[in-house]
């Protein structure tokens, strides 16, 4: 495990059985992440369809169905800020100042 992943993460899309023709898709998406857990390997028969610098399995599919998305495309900036505030107040995370 590599620790918390919080904020906006660029997720790179992978061509494969599920996404054969990427001509109509951007090469990457920006998705809000707020998680500590991480999927390390996909189930038997599944295909990784997206990854990021931090997480090797950002999205996976089995057949014609997307089954897993690590990030939260449904979150807004306000939801993310609220979650960060709650995590800070509960001492689950700490602010790290980068020089």
Automatic annotation (TrEMBL):
Residues 21-77 form the Glutamine amidotransferase domain. One of its GO terms (cellular component) is cytosol. Signal peptide: none annotated. This is Glutamine amidotransferase domain-containing protein. Pfam families: GATase. Coiled coil: none annotated. The lineage of its organism: Eukaryota, Viridiplantae, Streptophyta, Embryophyta, Tracheophyta. Gene3D superfamilies: 3.40.50.880. Pathway: Secondary metabolite biosynthesis. It comes from Linum tenue. Belongs to the peptidase C26 family. InterPro entries: ChyE-like, Class_I_gatase-like, GATASE.
């Amino acid at each position: 495990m590599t620790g918390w992943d919080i904020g906006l993460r660029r997720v790179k899309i992978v061509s494969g059985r599920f996404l054969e023709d990427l001509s109509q898709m951007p090469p990457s998406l920006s998705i809000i992440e707020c998680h500590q857990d991480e999927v390390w390997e996909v189930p038997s028969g599944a295909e990784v369809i997206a990854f990021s610098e931090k997480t090797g399995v950002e999205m996976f599919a089995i057949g014609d169905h997307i089954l897993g998305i690590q990030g939260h495309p449904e979150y807004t900036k306000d939801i993310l800020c609220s979650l960060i505030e709650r995590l800070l107040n509960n001492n689950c995370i700490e602010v790290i100042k980068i020089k």
